[in-house]
Design a protein that fits this description.
Elements lengths: L4 E5 L3 H12 L3 E5 L3 H20 L5 H9 L1 E4 L2 H5 L4 E4 L5 H11 L8 E4 L6 H6 L7 E6 L8 E6 L5 H13 L3 E5 L7 H17 L5 H12 L5 H8 L1 H15 L8 H8 L12 E2 L6 E2 L2
Parallel strand pairs: 1-2, 1-4, 2-3, 4-5, 5-6, 7-8
Antiparallel strand pairs: 6-7, 9-10
Helix pairs in contact: 1-2, 2-3, 8-10, 8-11
The structure holds 1,4-dihydronicotinamide adenine dinucleotide (NAI).
Length: about 290
């Protein structure tokens, strides 16, 4: 089987990045979101990012135009998936939302279509088992921002076939990314390590150990992290961070993963980070300003 058409479901920050990199290596890409405003914003973001790459001399005019031509958007699930050789699911980090979406799309899929989830933490084996094709189901965990980050964690579910793995590894390499195969445990490797750090940074803030700026400064200047954990949490999305830490807590049953009450408060307030212009930092001005 040859992957030519990829459907990306969910046009948030991850979905639009995945659509961008796939279109840039000449896959035919169909991007779907059920929210029209988000879909329009995604198309605009991809176009602006291509202009930025062009201005930096990373791509030429022809590549920019071809990438845009390779990309299509739709609000209709059937239109998105019926011709797809691979569907990459990048909707919100919620198991019920993801399984409902897979069950809705299955009647429209070709028999040989591969399914991939970009989940940060949910069991690939469990998601796969709710579909009609667990052997053609795999985890494809891109990093944020997708056009800039080299890594893709590939997660094989219990039933994932060797052929599915090979095809996905080839696709990841074609997209210019480096695959890293990890086992199907909650949070895989990336978020098993990253989310407890972000959660602990929120505890440090909650307990007054340091200010937002000082916590980030310690990790940047002291540990050579390019970005502090609280700024990174804003980039990931505080709702997504909370969903992941809750999954780690539930799956491992270990109190070290209990979510920080302050992180919960931010999410309850709708302060979700960059995507809402306010999280640990306020992004509405020229420079980010700490919110506490
Ligand atoms: P987001 O909140 O930016 O986007 C999610 C999108 O899914 C929204 O646009 C929403 O309208 C759409 N959506 C929700 N249910 C839908 C449905 N049934 N049909 C169609 N569209 C639907 O979230 P983000 O950050 O893009 O995350 C998406 C997935 O990628 C999650 O599973 C997350 O854990 C994972 N991920 C996130 C990373 C990050 O840094 N934010 C990094 C790697 C993976």
């Amino acid at each position: 089987m040859d992957i030519q058409t990829i459907a990306v479901i969910g046009a948030g920050q991850m979905g639009n990045g995945i659509a961008h990199v796939a279109a840039s290596v000449d896959y035919h890409v169909i991007l779907l979101d059920f929210n029209e405003a988000i879909l329009e914003k995604a198309a605009k973001t991809i176009s602006q990012n291509l202009v930025r790459e062009f201005k930096k001399g990373k791509i030429d005019e022809a590549r920019k135009e071809k990438t845009l031509q390779n990309l299509q958007t739709t609000l209709e699930l059937k239109d998105a998936v019926s011709e797809a050789d691979l569907v990459v699911e990048a909707v919100s980090e919620n198991e019920d939302v993801k399984t409902k979406l897979f069950s809705e799309m299955i009647p429209y899929l070709k028999e040989e279509t591969l399914l991939a989830s970009n989940t940060s933490s949910i069991s690939i084996t469990r998601l796969a088992a709710t579909t009609d094709r667990p052997e053609r189901f795999i985890g494809m965990h891109f990093m944020n921002p997708v056009p800039m980050m080299a890594l893709v964690e590939i997660i094989r579910g219990f039933a994932t076939s060797d052929e599915t793995y090979q095809l996905i590894e080839e696709a990841v390499i074609r997209m210019g990314k480096t695959p890293c195969v990890v086992k199907d445990f909650a949070g895989f490797v990336a978020n098993r390590i990253l989310m407890p750090m972000i959660n602990e940074a929120a505890f440090a803030l909650h307990e007054g150990v340091g200010s937002i700026e000082d916590i980030d400064k310690v990790m940047m200047l002291g540990m050579a992290h390019p970005m502090g954990p609280l700024a990174l949490a804003d980039l990931v999305g505080l709702d997504t961070c909370l969903a992941i830490i809750r999954i780690l807590h539930k799956e491992f049953g270990d109190s070290k993963y209990r979510p920080c009450p302050l992180l919960i408060k931010y999410v309850e307030a709708g302060w979700l980070g960059r995507k809402t212009d306010r999280g640990f930092y306020d992004y509405s001005g020229e420079y980010p300003v700490p919110t506490r």
